[in-house]
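TOKENISE THE FOLD
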Amino acid sequence: MTFHMDKITAVIITLNEELNIERCLRSLDGIADEIIVVDSGSTDRTQQICTQYNFQSSTFNFQLHPWEGYAAQKNFANSLASHPWILSIDADETLSPELQKELLDIKKAGLDPHTLYFLNRLTNYCGHWIRHCGWYPDRCPRLFHKDSAHWEGHIHELLTPSSHLSTFNLKGHLLHYSFHDFHDHALRTVKYATMAGEQAFQQGKRPRPVALKTLGTFLRNYILHLGFLDGRSGYTVCKMSSFYTFIKYTTLREVKGER
């Protein structure tokens, strides 16, 4: 009797990820049968690290592809997969040992093409694991049959099933090394909040009271979501989340010509 094991292609999109990509590849080698990296023009050592990495048991494919937006880039990368199952992972994420074992176990048991598998993401903020603040638990749909779902959206891409799928939550952690320092966090907050405000305008959304929305975001994450239990890092995370809200709704007001 020939034993059949479902095969998985891990898909990563990159741009200047030299600080993260090797850690990500190391956690996938031997877990994913194939690893695909689609790079949109890195100017750092990302390509060199990928192409020189000594893979032990996974096949590897590195592709250069012009940036099309998050969803389109991920869909293109998915189209390159040789295997029926896609494990979508970001360059700043890595599989915990528990999650690695779970993935091997469900591969052996057999994956259900009518199921969307969620991974439990745990974020490391400047060296500290954040277990509250509305950041955890952060269950993300990341493992799916490539014919069953696709990515949509411009800023915060969403995995959209082609038909009704059941869901299954894996218990191991997808470890997310989000921000290396506060400066990195501030720059990305301004970038994405500005884009979110412009998108809200395109969607015809109305401006909200900026001060109330900003304060509400902080209180929700710091008090209701127990951000204070994460200490100084929790306070910073909650403060930056409220800053995101401030930039988003200020941008929306400015685009609409309001003050």
